Amino acid sequence: MNNRDNLLGVFQTMYRWRKTIRNVCLIALVGSIALSLTLKNYFQASTIFYPASPELASPEQIFGATGQVMRYFGNDHDLDRIHEIANSSELVDYMVHRFRLYEVYGLDSTSLKGRAKVREYFRSLYVAQKNKNDAIEISVEDTDPQRAAEMANAARDKVNEIAQRLIKSSQSRLLAAFEENIKNKTAELEVLSDSLRGLQAQYGIYYGSEQGEQLAAQLLAAEAEITRGRARLEVLSNNPHIPRDTVEYIKANLRAYERERQNLLATGQGNVTIKGFNEGLPKVAVMTDLHFQARKQLSFDLERYNQIRATFNTDIPAVQIVEVAEPPLLKSRPKRSVIVLASVVAAFLFAVLGVLVAEAYRDFNWKDIARSDA
């Protein structure tokens, strides 16, 4: 019963003060309408994209040097990396200068306070976040819908540029390392080439296996001819019916083949000898193998370098665009009806509270209370 009486008392008090409450609500209504009409309309444009896999810029993947299946979209780490880039100070400063936001926001570009304010104001209108589908969504608000769309797309393109630059920076350092390595190996190869040419000239060995076969064949042929010549000479030299010219001819051939054998077994300079061949072949073979391995490694490094250079010069996107920002047709804020309604409701509640407080303490003699406190 007391609760009903109290509630009834509240309504009675509100009824007695109904004009005051009404006036407060009307003032709030008119004031909120006037205030909301002075607020600028803001339009929000958004673009959505996924991070691309860094494997797209990998020479191994591009030129098929690995058997792994290529991933076209990045993982969670790539998503975090792109998100950090999208919220970096570099991107904010780029947007400020690209769209002349000092002039747009009416701030002084020459003062430190103005520089801080323009960044703060832009960040209040700019949002780069992961959405529910694990994509990056960049949203920009502006009073001009066309500029809002251009700013959102420009921010996305700048994110792509920064991400590409980070990858190309690593590739650039790798290219520099390869260039230095190729330079050193080219110099080493020249030294090996000079050493190999010197050994070949010294021992006369240019085609090891072929020359060895030829020397062996020549030596065997000479030995065979010497054996045959001696046998003929032994048989024919004591035969009185054989002309002396024939015997001398056989002796001359025998001396020629003996000289040939002597030359093949000698150590002299000029023509390749068996002894010189056997002495020089291991040295020439080792140097030839070193030269071959150096050329093979240099060829591999050059191929690898050219692959990295081709990848470096190729424009490989770091983001996969899902939705391009377009000029919005409707404003995003302010919601004037909400502002007006909230203002009137708040004014009504405060007016009722004030009326109840005033009604509850109207019988107090504030002068007597103040006098007694004194």
What would your notes on this structure say?
The protein is of the alpha+beta class. It has a domain at 177-312. Helices cover 70% and strands 7% of the residues. The chain is built from 13 helices and four strands. The protein has helices at residues 2-16, 18-38, 59-62, 76-86, 89-98, 101-105, 112-125, 145-203, 208-236, 244-265, 274-312, 336-360, 366-373; strands spanning 43-51, 126-130, 136-142, 319-323. Strands 2-3-1-4 form a four-stranded antiparallel sheet. Strand 2 (126-130) and strand 3 (136-142) form a beta hairpin. The two termini are 41 Å apart.
Give keywords.
single chain; 374 residues; alpha+beta; four-stranded antiparallel beta sheet; 13 helices; 70% helix; 7% strand
In short:
The protein is of the alpha+beta class and 374 residues long. The protein has helices spanning 2-16, 18-38, 59-62, 76-86, 89-98, 101-105, 112-125, 145-203, 208-236, 244-265, 274-312, 336-360, 366-373; strands spanning 43-51, 126-130, 136-142, 319-323.
